[in-house]
Amino acid sequence: MPPSPPRLRRTAGATPTRAPGQPRLTHSPLIRELLAAGGQSFSFEFMPPKTEDEEHQLWRAIRQLEPLRPTFVSVTYGAGGSTRDRTVRVTGRIAAETTLTPVGHLTAVNHSVAELRQVIGSYASVGVRNVLALRGDPPGDPNATWLPHPEGLSYAADLVRLVRSVGDFCVGVAAFPEKHPRSADPDTDVRYFVDKCQAGADFAITNMFFYPDDYLRLRDRVAARGCDVPIIPGIMPVTSLRVIERAIELGGCRVPTALWARLQAVADDRAAVREIGVEYAAGMCGRLLAEGVPGLHFYTLNWSRATREIYQRLGLGERDSGRVRARSGSSAPITA
């Protein structure tokens, strides 16, 4: 069985004095320290809510997934910074009100360097020290021509350098098992990835994919270039046909013919679609864990059920529960 996800406790001195009514400010551990502690990382990704109902759903999912003791959770950043304030607010609230270690997203598109420094400072002010640095897609049409801000940055590697230059941050970046759609070929894509690592990236999370061998080939190419930055596979369980359609739209993601045929055959049965999607994702996760990946990162779409079902099928909840008691003496419930 894979080892339990590493965790670090926050120290009593990490919470500064605050005025009555102000939120509790904590300083989360750095992801690079959590990964260096050994074992495998299990993490979840959320999106900032747009409405009050979506906010309730987001926090319902967070509270349902919190007992699984993820290594970290991340909050996305809308195209062109469209959700900037909500992303910072939600990420800060996770740091202040939960036991979770948050990672805030940051994109270069449509931002000047001054604006990027302001966002980085906003994260620091709410106790967030982990950032996922992305160049980002053009707003409106992710396949449109990418144009840098006249006072901004052109590459994700530049953004990594900026974040690392302004404070004690841990920086993650994106990786692409099928190569980035804008890269000429896999070797060029790996060269760009290594550039981000040499700029100071501490870890990476991949785009969603459906073929484990694509991830393994990426890992081998990166290792062949002498780069040992941990690359965490990004997993998105298919809970509707729209998930696959969106994946193809955003990145030309390859979908196994057999999987697509099975899903289309039950397209009008949401429960059957979910069952097939969860089954396939769990099988992928099992194969990846057997290949010694540094962890798994689940794209939750602000829902918890599919991720909890995968945990149950892989036995991750039961494993974590036993190891948590052995390590800390706690019998905190682990649900799946």
What does this structure look like?
It is a single chain. This protein has an 8-stranded parallel beta barrel with strand order 1-2-3-4-5-6-7-8, surrounded by 6 helices. The protein contains 12 helices and 8 strands. Mean pLDDT is 83; it is low at 1-24 and 319-336. It is globular. The chain is of the alpha/beta class and 336 residues long.
Number of strands: 8
Q: What fraction of the residues are assigned to beta strands by DSSP?
A: 5-15%
Mean pLDDT figure: 83
Low-confidence stretches: 1-24, 319-336
The secondary structure category is: alpha/beta
Radius of gyration: 19 Å
Choose one word for the global shape. globular
For the sheet with most strands, the description reads: 8 strands, parallel, barrel
Spatial order of the strands forming the largest sheet:
1-2-3-4-5-6-7-8
List the helices and strands and how they pair.
Blueprint: H1 31-36, E1 41-46, H2 52-65, E2 72-75, H3 84-97, E3 102-107, H4 113-125, E4 130-134, H5 156-165, E5 170-175, H6 186-198, E6 203-208, H7 212-224, E7 231-235, H8 241-251, H9 257-265, H10 270-290, E8 295-299, H11 305-314, H12 316-328
Parallel strand pairs: 1-2, 1-8, 2-3, 3-4, 4-5, 5-6, 6-7, 7-8
Helix pairs in contact: 5-6, 9-10, 10-11
